[in-house]
Amino acid sequence: MKLKKIYDLSNILFNNWTLLQVVKNLMINTFFIVLSLHNISNYDILDLKNELFKYGAKSMVIKAKYIKILFSNSFAFIKSSCMCIFINNMTQFLNIIKILKNLTYFYSYNKCFSNITNSSLLLDQHNIYEYYIIFHYIIFKLINNIILIILIYISLFINLLKNSVSETQRLNV
Questions:
Q1: Can you tell me whether residue 32 is helix, strand or coil?
Q2: CATH superfamily for domain 2-115
Q3: pTM metric for this prediction
Q4: Which positions ≥6 away from 58 have C-beta within 8 Å?
Q5: Burial 14-44 (b: 16+ CB within 10 A, else e)
Q6: Pick from 69, 68, 49: nearest CA to 59
Q7: Beta pairing partners, 86
Q8: Three-state DSSP class for residue 127
């Protein structure tokens, strides 16, 4: 009887520790991917975890009963276990979604969830909008520099007016 209680207690502690690790990684990392493991073989999961290790990403497999605890009712349709992949930066995210090929998954950037998507769709969008983002950055920097130059000229003009007014007052006295 005592062994059963210790076993149950150790399961509760292990499960709570796992949930705490997932929540901690959700708070630390900017990207995370939720991937359902329903149609994936164990061999493919092992290969995926090895590839993720090469890129330095953290991943955890979560049982289906804990998905409702972590994500409320948002992921109630996931009936089997799922894998959470935690990613730090954009280049690492792009490399990892290339690994996921034809799988469908959810991803989150800065705590905002996406709809269910796949890698080909995300990579196509990245290839299309990458140049627009760079172009937007260049235009923004140019406008910012022009505004800065105009403000410098305005401050120089105000100082010139201030000096000329004080010079005329001194001459009039």
A1: strand
A2: Ribosomal protein L10, N-terminal RNA-binding domain (3.30.70.1730)
A3: 0.59
A4: 25, 29, 52, 85, 86
A5: eeeeeeeebeebeeebebbbbbbbeeeeeee
A6: 49
A7: 32, 58
A8: helix
User: Domain residue spans in the chain?
Assistant: 2-115, 119-173
Question: How far, in Å, CA of 21 to CA of 72, rounded?
Answer: 17
Q: Which of 73, 47, 71, 76 is nearest to 59 (CA)?
A: 47
> What three-state secondary structure class fits 36?
strand
Rounded CA separation 69/62 (Å): 11
User: Residue 10 — φ and ψ, nearest 5°?
Assistant: -65, -35
Q: How far is CA 139 from CA 1, 146, 148, 159, in A?
A: 72, 11, 14, 30
- The string of pLDDT tens digits covering residues 92-123 is 888 888 888 777 777 777 766 666 666 667 76
